[in-house]
Protein: Ribonuclease
Organism: Oceanibacterium hippocampi
Amino acid sequence: MSAARAAASSLTLGFHGAVGTVTGSKYLIEVGRQRVLVDCGLFQGFKQLRLRNRAPLPFAPAKVDAVILTHAHIDHSGYLPAFVRDGFRGAVHATDATCDLAAILLPDSGFLQEKDAEFANRHGFSRHKPAKPLYTRRDAEVALERLLPVPFDHWRRISRRIRFRLRPAGHILGAAIVELEVDGRTIVFSGDLGRRADPIMVPPTTIRAADYLVVESTYGDRRHLDGDPQETLREIIVRVASRGGTVLIPSFAVGRAQSLLYHLERLKARGAIPDIPVFLDSPMSIDASELFRHHSAEHRLSAAEARAVCAVARYVRTAEESIALNGNRMPKIIISASGMATGGRVLHHLKHLAGDERNALVFAGFQAGGTRGAAIVAGAESVKIHGGYVPIRAEVHNLEMLSSHADSDGLMAWLGGFETAPAMTFVTHGEPAAADALRHRIKEELGWNAVVPEYRDSVRLD
């Protein structure tokens, strides 16, 4: 074969995010002159990770032919507004529900970045003069015009050489496993895999074969704790309400907020907790909760159950209503974004509530390294919010049993569905210890070839 023909048929996979971390998911597939990006996520957590959001990519957005999203969470979709602004002009393929959720999440992300920059400039605590958002709400709205809905389980062709289909992954509404076929070779991207026994979401689809596999490892080194999340929530709420306190739950707007509402509705329905108000203080969470009625095939709830879940909380839409919650000293439950306390309205609630030992801070899932949530869960005596330090005197919990991610056993069970071993399995989307633990289990228990790639590695798949 000539050098030119070899180059034209060479298939490479580049890892431009979600390696050594659970954020910034970006995988670049190149064959000849064609480029497809799977996920276009935002880095979060440690400052050195967040700085990557502002660093130039090693490939030009204008030369990427298509983007495929596994799901709408910001660590998988949140870089899209900058990617489109910087020159991408192709289609962004995603499931119907992911398109609907992205229409909520991305403009909100731009809005929050604008507000954070404005707040920093007004109070003078940013090192940048002036502080600027990574992108704006308008950038996000322009990016949404690139979205192209794709039904589950249908092959869609990007070019003569490349096609893909999306398979249900559980996790959240619209979440997908990507089967990408290039010149007859198949690369499977797990995306974020849900839990088989999740009370709300459907289980992830079993995949039988792949030439190459990219698998997440968020919980690759641990099993979810045994126990009933409703009982744990009940104990916390009863105890805090009895002393006149407030339960503040930082929550991811999509998936986790709805799971929390489900458990709280069940507790209230059987009279297991005091009849104190539940406030859903996140416009994103409110809109995402309403989407459960429109995508009923993707979850286990009946129409009546979905209505009951949405009705258990009082919706807090305006900033004025949110501020008023902090002046109201009655016992209550506040669910507010973001889930790792990296931004959003929950920061204002933390400033008012975290210093009072009558209250409780209840995190509800994985806390990435470098986030305020991770620091608080680890026992920090104070955290920095809006340029000042806030003491942590409230009791702190992290209910990882509420996570919408498969744990290490769940990941291995999903991998066990493959009838033949992939030529190589790339373990990504995990902190270093988690990714390496899963790599080790894959090699020892399945006998597969498995590696943990490095940031910006590019691997030839011939």
User: Anything to note?
Assistant: The chain has two domains: 3-222+404-460, 229-402. The mean pLDDT is 92. The radius of gyration is 22 Å. The longest strand covers residues 162-168.
